[in-house]
Known about the structure:
Elements: E1 5-8, H1 13-29, E2 33-40, H2 52-73, E3 79-87, H3 88-97, E4 101-108, E5 115-116, H4 119-127, E6 132-136, E7 150-153, H5 162-175, E8 179-183, H6 195-202, H7 207-225, E9 231-235, H8 240-247, E10 253-259, H9 271-279, E11 284-289
Parallel strand pairs: 1-2, 1-4, 2-3, 4-6, 7-8, 7-10, 8-9, 10-11
Antiparallel strand pairs: 4-5, 6-11
Amino acid sequence: MIRPITVGLDGSPESLAAADWAAREAQRRDLPLHLVHAWIWQPHDVPVAQDLDTQKHWALRILREAEEELRGRHPELTVSTEQISETAAEVLLGQAEKAEMLVLGSSGHGAIAGFLLGSVGQQVLARANSPVVMVRANARSAAKHDGGQVVVGLDDPGDPAAPLLEFAFGAAAARRTALRAVHAPSLPPLYGHGPVVGQLASQEGGITGQAEKALSDALKPWQEKYPQVPVDHTVDLARPSGVVLQAAAQAGLVVVGRRVHRPALGMRIGPVAHAVLHHAAAPVAVVPHD
């Protein structure tokens, strides 16, 4: 069964930008596009005076208008719509189970800062079992930037996450662009601070050398699987989130991982994913993995 690329729509400019990005992605991957609206999206989205029938009609119009516009831009694309009478987070999590990826829109802080994650986005990112792509309604998400390289951040190249690399290489192959893998190894306490850090880390067999070999080894089987994808990799002794964000400055898509766990309190997506989502300008894919 072919899994679609699914988009959550709420009528906002951000969600429409997400639908536009998802349509291009679906066309690149030869996948169907599925537009979903949970018509009890948020209590403040419609005036209290409006009854449920009015809400439902309003939601249906959003779906129809988005479908018509996307069919006009992408006549070869298979587009379906679905309106579900349920809260947004639960609807989107259910849809993610059946989708190749789930695409959502998010508002931003402007030209530099990235995403404003509402409660729905946070819940979905923390609990979804499929990749979730967050798209901003800005120029960086426009079609002309789709050719930018794919950047993927690896937490532990010695134990690479297959779903993360599969998604990143697949995205680069679909775009016919390069992939850049980045990693920031952890410094043990004995390294301390100062010039000695750079000297020891740069020595052959030191921290940087070991990390570069581990990263190269982790990428090798995926390069063999995707020989058409040019690959570059970088190891940097800095904060992991900063390393990914620096590489993401000119990226067309940023891919980060989220370890699957169920913390006792709160919804966690990990510090690197959190930082990238809040400060990257390009679309960001969060891929769950063990």
